Amino acid sequence: MTMIKLNIHEAKTHLSKYLAKLKAGDRIVLCKHNHPVAEITPLPEVPDRPRPIGLAKGRFTVPRSFFDPLPDELLRVFEGTRG
If pLDDT is split at 50, 70 and 90, which confidence band does 2 have? Predict the structure, then answer.
């Protein structure tokens, strides 16, 4: 884990260089007159490919009652017409 302290002027000039080196766990602390004012941390990496379909296949079943109509009282609550 690395912490880089940068004054705002240096960050404005060289931020892309520092961001290119940023790894998980690292952080850049932006300072104004050597007093910390903000922190930059890397976001988690986005997967290169989409998640496969069916990851939980066979782990549970949806009961038939799931598809039954909702009770009128519950429908009114969802529609905002409770009364």
Answer: confident
* C-alpha span between 61 and 79 (Å, rounded): 29
pLDDT of residue 82: 67
In a domain, 34, yes or no: yes
The CATH number for 33's domain is 3.40.1620
User: Is-above-0.70 flag for pTM?
Assistant: no
Residue 82's φ and ψ, nearest 5 degrees, are: -60, 130
The answer to whether residue 15 is domain-embedded is yes
Beta strands in the chain (DSSP E): 3-7, 27-32, 35-40
Residues 6+ apart with CB under 8 A from 11: 18, 28, 30
